[in-house]
Design brief:
disordered N terminus; 13 helices; single chain; alpha/beta; 9-stranded mixed sheet
Length: about 375
Amino acid sequence: MLPCDDRSCGFLLLWSLTRSCISALLGIIVLVGSAAAESGNFNRRATATAQILAGIVPAIDDPAFDRLLESAAFLEHQKWMATRWGLMRSRIAAIELWRAREVKITGASNRTLLYPFSGPDFINAYALFPDHPLYIFFSLERPGNLPDLESVTFEQFGDLLRDVRHAFRDIFERNYFITDYMSKQLTTPWIRGSVPIIATMMALMRLRIVRIEPIDLYPELTASYEAMESRRPRKLLRGVRLDFIDGQAVPLRQLYYFSLDATDKALEFYPGFLDWVAGQRPASVLLKSASYLLHDGQFEKTRALILQHSDYVIQDDTGIPYRLLKDSPWQVRLYGHYTKPIKGLRYGYQADLESAYRAKARRSELPFPFGYHWRGKQSGLLIATR
């Protein structure tokens, strides 16, 4: 995520495609069954809702959905999502090829993926760590809920789809979210929180939602803070769990998403949170477009959690400072290029990391954008293993 940036223009013109072509681009999953809220091994209504937000026509016989799928607003949304997702899918394919060659994690099917400062970026987490059965995200943005499509008017449905497109523009174009923009994108009348975006990404990745349910690790603390007018955290800890499966229906995977202020001072209100996270081992870590927060003295507890309780880290230069990873017990592999931080984040410059890149006799290319330097081939990435 990025605290502030100029939105670039020049989006591609919409393709003039028939519905069948759009369906082919999006890779529609053919769902068989009734419109029951939960039938078989996945939740058909939640999955269908996420697919509609993704511009996919679900195979679910439900008049409440059928009327929306025939609307001009949905046809326009289909075209927009197909165009952008087609380009994003080629980027994901490059990530997957690179991952198969470079990311070797023993026992991946029994590991946790920890993604601090994630926002709703499920796409990159799943593309890089598809075999991890448990994902733990935490970020400022609140969880929220999937929208209810059964009672919306056509005008409201059009507004909802516009909000979805607005929320996806940066991740599709740049491969990261912009924090300042998200504060508006995820607080509209129809898109409220990260869950609608995560669920839509799951639909685009051909995954099915089994259940979505709120999680409260500390119900007594929550009740206490909600009742207090003072001495309470600025942001209450809110959580949600999304269970999902791939097209083969196995294995079940879980994503825990928590909304909280992760500064050391704010974590004093939830002293057990990082201990709970640390208990979900063995752990891999993803850090991407993280605004150099872990270079800051305000996030020492989260930085210590990663350094002490994980053994595999994929990150760009905005994650753990290179000086803390370059020596034993860590081994680091560098990919792509080191490019100095963008305007507004110059404090994140790392001379030692730049020198390490220059000292490499042979540069390992990075065939996809990763982080703030998304134009051209300016991105860099490192893998640190304990």
